Amino acid sequence: MTTLSQHTALDRTEASADTGAADTAAPTDPPVIAVRDVRISDRVTDREIVHGIDFELTPGRAVGMVGESGSGKTLTCRAVLGILPPHFEVSGGSVEIDGTDIATLTPRRWAALRGTTVGAVFQDPASYLNPSIRVGAQIAEVIRVKKGVKRREARRQALELLRTVRLRDPELVYSQYTYELSGGMLQRVLIASAIAVEPRALIADEATTALDVTVQAEILDLLAELRERTGMALLVVSHDLAVVAQLCDEVLVMRQGEVVEQGPTRSVLHDPQHAYTRLLMTEHEQYGLDKFLAPQAPNDPEEAS
To answer: 2, 139, 147, 190: which has the fewest Cβ within 10 Å?
Structure first.
């Protein structure tokens, strides 16, 4: 079976090495999203679930969050988006979007930010699309409402987005319902909807988990292409370290609500300091992470001997 990393990891790793210090260069642009010592608590049990998360998401950069189920990854994403489940709350620290503390945002301001400044793609796209409305019409409605364009223009832009996410027959897909599309096609439709009004940052929370390995590789390629072409920042959340390795400049390794290791992706993967990070790497070698970690061939023939 062709592995995920065989599709993309080596090419992207070499490209990153050729461009020089993507992992080590300090971002100079102001962050689109800044998470400062964020703590999330369950009001019902009076228990802190997430214990002090820190990271910045700047234009053109990708940050990965990796860890087992229940480690706090999705709660952190929902805190950033202002959509924590009932009885959960940000009990410490702050989240800023474009320099504004989200605790000060009104519902109207939130509505303006979602989709325009920050978009999101989640696992199980069918749950986020209306099964009774054709998928193209759903994308067009987002464009019409957010951009204020006429229906014909919204339809044209929606078709262009379906082409952008590499759907083979955009006209046909536009007219179809969710039950007529495969999981990979639905994920592409959801990505098209999420980028419809050109957000500056995109949160991809387990966006490839339910897909087979070939489709997963195609979606990861698509996200990388969108990032490179538009300068969009990416927050990639996964339980799979190989996924994060392929896309991200920085990685946060989470366990039981806290970050156990954080740093440039290449540094963390080549020299993991925490036992849990080493465990994740061991578990994911079967998916090709060993190829990502393989040292490059030396230039000096004597070194190779």
So the answer is: 2
Give me the residue label for tokens 């464009």: 143
**If we measure between CA atoms, which residue out of 146, 137, 88 comes closest to residue 114?**
146
Read off the tokens for 13. Answer: 């790793």
* Amino acid occupying residue 36: R
Write down the residue that tokens 């599709």 correspond to: 7
The H or E element containing residue 236 is: strand 233-238
Residue 19, phi then psi, degrees to nearest 5: -80, 0
DSSP 72-101: SHHHHHHHHHT-PPTTEEEEEEEEEETTEE
Amino acid found at 302: E
DSSP 59: T
pLDDT tens across 101-130, in order? 999 999 889 988 888 899 998 888 778 899
> Is the pTM for the entire model greater than 0.90?
no
